[in-house]
Design a protein that fits this description.
With about 260 residues, the protein is α/β, with parallel strands linked by helices. Helices cover about 45% and strands about 10% of the residues. It has 9 helices and 5 strands. Strands 1-2-3-5-4 form a 5-stranded mixed beta sheet. Helix 8 packs across helix 9.
Length: about 260
C-alpha cells in the first residue's frame, strides 16, 4: 500500500470521528457468511483461516448474547486485515497488529476490525481471539441496548453511558472467555496504586494519558458494581439510558473514589 495514501487516511483523524471514517481496505475482496447475521470480509490470502475464525466468532457471539439475555440477533461483519497496514488504512490510526475495534455500523451491519492470524501470532490463539471478539461484540450490544452514542465517545456532557462502564463490561466479559486475561487483570490491579478520578473516565478512555490504568480501573469498578449490585441491575440501567431516565452520576462508585 502506498505510504501517501496511508498518510491521507491518517489526516482524516483531524476532522472525523472513527465511526465516520472507517473504510474497507482495497485488498479485502472476499466475503462469506457463517449464518444469516454473521459475515466476514477478508483477503484471498487468508482463506485458510476461515474455519478457526468461524469457531471463535460463533463462540464469542453466543457468549455475549447469553450474558445479556439478548433476544434476537445482531448482524455483524468482521473485516479481517491481511496486514497491520490494512488495519491502519481502515481505522486511519497508526495502530499495532494487536488492535481490535468496533467502530460502528455500515448499512445497518455492525463492523469489527482486526488483523488476520496469519499476520498476528496472538490472534492464532483461539481463546485470545474469542476473547477479543466478545469484547467488540459487547461494545455493539451495549450501544444497541442503551442507544449510547458511537459517534464522539464524548459522553459526559450528554449524561450518556460512561465509557468506563462500557469498556469495563467489555473487559469483564472478555476475561470470562479468556481466563489468562482474568489473572493478568487481577495481578495488575494488585500492583497499581494510583487511580484516576471518575470524572476523567467518562469519555473515550484512549484520551487518558495512562490508557492502561484507565482501562484497568474501568474493569475493576465495573466488576465491583456487578459483584455488589448484580448484573441485572447494570443491564436495567443500560436499557433505561434509552430514555435518559438514569443519572450515571449517582452510581455507587468505588470507596476510594467516592
Ligand atoms: Zn473496548
Amino acid at each position: 500500500m502506498d505510504q501517501s495514501l496511508l498518510e491521507s487516511r491518517f489526516g482524516l483523524r483531524k476532522t472525523r470521528y472513527i465511526s465516520e471514517r472507517f473504510e474497507k481496505s482495497p485488498r479485502i475482496t472476499e466475503h462469506c457468511s457463517f449464518s444469516d447475521h454473521l459475515h466476514i470480509s477478508y483477503a484471498i490470502q487468508d482463506s485458510s483461516t476461515l474455519p478457526s475464525i468461524r469457531e471463535s466468532l460463533l463462540r464469542a457471539y453466543m457468549y455475549a448474547k447469553d450474558w445479556f439475555a439478548y433476544q434476537g440477533d445482531i448482524e455483524l461483519e468482521l473485516w479481517m486485515a491481511p496486514k497491520v497496514i490494512d488495519l491502519q488504512y481502515m481505522t486511519c490510526l497508526p495502530c499495532d497488529e494487536n488492535f481490535f475495534c468496533a467502530p460502528g455500523s455500515q448499512n445497518g451491519i455492525k463492523i469489527i476490525l482486526f488483523v488476520s492470524p496469519l499476520s498476528c501470532q496472538k490472534n492464532a490463539d483461539k481463546d485470545h481471539l474469542s476473547g477479543c471478539l466478545v469484547h467488540e461484540i459487547t461494545h455493539h450490544i451495549v450501544r444497541d441496548i442503551s442507544q449510547a452514542t458511537v459517534f464522539s465517545m464524548k459522553r459526559k456532557k450528554d449524561l450518556d453511558v460512561p465509557m468506563w462502564i462500557e469498556e469495563g463490561l467489555c473487559q469483564l466479559i472478555q476475561s470470562e472467555v479468556h481466563p489468562y486475561l482474568y489473572h493478568k487483570l487481577s495481578e495488575d490491579i494488585a500492583k497499581t496504586t494510583r487511580w484516576y478520578d471518575f470524572e476523567e473516565l467518562w469519555n473515550d478512555l484512549s484520551s487518558c494519558t495512562d490508557t492502561t490504568t484507565a482501562y484497568l480501573q474501568a474493569y475493576k469498578e465495573t466488576k465491583t458494581f456487578i459483584e455488589t449490585k448484580g448484573k441485572m441491575e447494570l443491564i436495567r440501567l443500560l436499557y433505561l439510558n434509552r430514555t435518559h431516565d438514569v443519572n450515571w452520576n449517582n452510581l455507587p462508585y468505588g470507596e476510594n473514589n467516592a
